[in-house]
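Cross-posting from the modeling subforum.

Setting up a comparison between two proteins and wanted a second pair of eyes on the formatting. Protein 1 (sequence, then structure tokens):
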Amino acid sequence: MDGSFDRRKFLIGIARGAGGALLFALPMLMTMEMWELGFYMSRSRLLLLLTLNIPLLILLAHKVGFEKTSTWRDAVRDAAIAYALGVVSSALILAGMGVLRYDQSLHEIAGMVALQAVPASIGAMLGRSQLGGQSQDDDSENEDQDPVQKSESSYFSELFLMAVGALFLGLNVAPTEEMLLVSVKMTPWHGIFIVLASLAVMHGFVYALSFRGSHDLAEGTPGWHALVRFTLPGYVIAALISAYCLWTFHRIDDLGVTQALMAVVILGFPGAVGAAAARLIL
């Protein structure tokens, strides 16, 4: 065994992961639409979602794993642990609420647990970043040892974190009927307003409002630089992920092009917020 392995910190990371799975996935675990999707959603779409979640967790683990990951082997290990925490926590909570019952078929149980395990596993990994603070007294002493420290991100790493944030909030909202109801009521003018509001919120979250973790522009950098380099690409990512979530959950299968676009725009608003927030907290 690697002599640098710290069992205590690893177990703390596991506890943080379990707490994150509960904290971040609980809204979806208590959403009726998510239960029903486990019954009837296309198994090919569910399999694609489960498959895509694996590299996402590995890349996220490399960023904020249960320990400081120096190799991809460590990241794969942490991703497997997060997935396992997602499966176990989802099954326990659904069973505890009476959603999973002994008289259900294995097909139904597997569908519900597998679907819920995706956001729960992401929550398990994000929970390590969210719940991993340390005391001020230990900041200087443990700066090089704490597995929860933040590191400088490359441009593509930040875009990836935006995608994670957009996906996480998209998974929360996309299964609900309200997405379709709101999209039906919207006019093209409403759509334009929502797009502009999404861009303004994204840009304000990260640059204009000086939130903790926000990114200050280097002196002499024009204001439009951040808009073009981060905000606009981030919104495109959020919109694409919103479209994928709606397609995965069969929300746009029977819609016309205009109504489907409106659904993507309205889901893109929480997706944009998630993308911006991910850059602040990870």
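Protein 2 (same layout):
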Amino acid sequence: MSVVHPYRRPSEDIVRAAPWTLAGELTELADDLPDWDYDTVLPLRRTLVVDGARARNECGLKDDAELAVSVRWTASGSLLRGRAWRAPVPPTDGVELSVEFDLPGTDLGGTLGLDLSLVLISPGGTISKIAPRRPGSVLWADRRDVRLRGDATQFPIVVTDFGSSTYPADAPWILDIGGGLEDAALGSLLLLVNEKRKNVVDVVTGRAAGDPARSAAVLSMLRSDTLRSLVEKAVVEEDFDLSTEYPTGSTGAVLQAVLRQHFENDLGTLRREHTQDPAYFVARIQAAAGLLKEEA
């Protein structure tokens, strides 16, 4: 089923991308990395050739329109995501770009998704009524999924009946955090999904069909709530400290990675906000998670 966009898009060959590789390797990145673990940093590389002038012309844009190529990543195991790389695209053809970035293993797990996109930053002066005008409009996109450590996930997901448990019967999900800070996250973090909430179960298990925007909203709320649970664990756990060297893949290491990525290691401020202004604390986490934010 093809997707119809409400604006003009350029030809598929507007971006010519070489395969993803790991730094120092000549062969294409494999679909499975069975030897990957949480101590493994992925040095991802890719080369591109972008026809910036032709892209603008075919979209009905003038040369002053601002375009960029960006790479965003998602990890199903940690439910984390982020923008790894971005570069502007000048209004000339044959622009060569080298995509280079490293992803730390403590942020990953499960299936790693790599989304490469040519996006509109600013429309400038358009020459067509159906030219893209909204910043963030995707003009070209390419996705690659890579399974890390087989199908293992940092947060195992279990679909269960909340009605027969101590959890609220109508709650959609809960991130259960057990064990100590030095225990393996793989055995301490468990995402429980209520089997009675079929719409949520379908999205989490990848069986959702129909409205993609609705599925994206569910995942966005799930990521935000999961991030909140992890940050709250960090701020209320008196023994948790950013300077401690926790074992690789442990709950403590995961919490450190979360605070490093989203809050610049600002544990003291988070603890004060959690106590003195809990509403602001929650809003700050929602902002960090990009809750219901349209992706660029």
